[in-house]
């Protein structure tokens, strides 16, 4: 059973940047289509960025041009580079498969505030 551990969150001012990491273990990471999800206070968890096993990426409209998803299969790790952060990006960020989601990790908190 694959497991995911997210890291890299923190408190950042509007316009700042963060890089999130997702470390996978317990299975063959390279075969999975992966995504970054986020859950803002009082809202449902939503899928915001995806990268398939071939490296094709897609983003929610609100993130296009600001966030970049990538993966390093040799390191069993996925990343989310977040630039030009806005207060509305404040959320707990999670990584998981897109299809047949595995057990959710603890996520990493991102807070954008002045």
Describe this structure in words.
It is a single chain. By secondary structure, the chain is mostly beta strands. It contains no helices and ten strands. The protein is globular, with a radius of gyration of 13 Å. The mean pLDDT is 96.
Task: Write the topology of this structure.
Elements: E1 3-7, E2 10-12, E3 18-25, E4 34-39, E5 46-51, E6 57-59, E7 67-72, E8 77-82, E9 91-97, E10 108-112
Parallel strand pairs: 2-10
Antiparallel strand pairs: 1-3, 3-8, 4-5, 4-9, 5-6, 7-8, 9-10
Order of helices and strands: EEEEEEEEEE
Task: Identify the strand order in the major beta sheet.
Answer: 2-10-9-4-5-6
How many distinct helices? Answer: 0
Structural class computed from helices and strand pairing = mainly beta
Rg, Cα atoms, Å: 13 Å
For the largest beta-sheet, the strand count, sense and barrel status come to: 6 strands, mixed
Unreliable spans? none
Helical fraction: under 10%
Shape estimate: globular
* Proportion in β-strands: over 45%
Number-wise, the strands total: 10
Could you tell me the mean pLDDT? Answer: 96
- Distance between the first and last residues' Cα: 40 Å
